[in-house]
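Chapter summary example.
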Amino acid sequence: MSESPTPPPRPSVLGRGSYPEALRIGEILRKETVGGILLVAAAVIALIWANSPVSESYFALRDFTFGYEPWHLELSLGAWAADGLLAIFFFLVGLELKREFVAGDLRDISKSIVPVAAAVGGVIVPAIIYAVINLTSPETLRGWAIPTATDIAFAVAVLAIIGSHLPSALRIFLLTLAVVDDLIAITIIAVFYSTDLQFTPMLLALIPLALYIFLAQKFRFFFGTKNAAAWLILLPLGLITWGLVHASGIHATVAGVLLGFAIPVIRSQKAGGPDAGPGLSEIFEHRFRPISAGVAVPIFAFFSAGVAVDGWDGFVSALTDPVAVGIIVALVLGKPVGILGTTWLVTRVTKATLDKSLKWIDIFGVSLLAGIGFTVSLLVAELSFGLGSPHDEHAKVGILAASLIAAILASTVLVTRNKKYKAAEESDAVDSDHDGIPDVYQQGN
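The structure predicted for these 445 residues follows.
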């Protein structure tokens, strides 16, 4: 009697990926750790100042306006931070997303389907939960998109504080989740939160944007290895594009994503061959990430997180507003349900299994961490209800409370796994042949 054939092995998902990708992600997250600590510090300072005896000076500073009105650029400091500085943050979102899908591990559909699907689930479920809680109030229903995004800087800062040795696969998963749902959030902003559209500046914006794209793609041909020339030409074109997009009524951060998408991520081999130096994407990422993480996002957090709660009664009143309730439930419950549920569903449909180095409790911990919605959530709250309005203030209380709860819950789960992560990290670092590449990456495990 012949033996039955051995069934083929089931594919695994969320493996460690390639070594260059692990190094790159590790470097990005190290920078974001510093930025996350600055972000949290800026938010705490804003909260203390906004509830101090000199709170009027905080709001006077936030609402101080300057700029050139004929160009629709007479804005408050808070608006400059939201429309201007966050454009740098979203420029990096565009750069990172393109880098992942063009040259990173996620160009392989089998590797990208799980984190991308999980990010989509982590957007849809929180939005539905918020909408259900606020279904009877058209005024508050407008904030349905507030709990859709994950703040990677804040999340990584939490990892740094708890000393987590999160495996490379989970770090890549977390970063991809954050980048993809930030992209979804900016798409939502462009579609649902653009008001009083002006078609003349919108069409005019296409001219500098097209020139920017053309010169960026032909970077080596026009600029050779002189990076300063690229800055002197591309940066002004980017600023003009940003100004025209802002004047058109589309939120100006959308321009940041478009400009990031325009940058090539693969080095040109026509100008100097393999010794031509870093590509434009690498140059811009290296230069702009410290500005974004260390300056732009913390300043935005400082001007957006300051909310006066008027004592304990005011705090309780804010937390009982359906806006805050919807945000807290959506981020703390909806995010992990959406991410974990979608990840499980994809593995079932594709008949795949988690990589042998991971367990479902690890995905659960990361999905809880993804419930830290801060930077983009604060931005969407302002767009939904207007800076300084009662619902905006209550939304901020909800965002801060939800982010804190999510951080505590995620820390509790991940700390219990930290010993396992540390052992895996030490094992993954073994390089028995001393060639600079850990053995596990050469074995294809």
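To summarize the output: Residues 166 and 421 are 6 Å apart (CA to CA).
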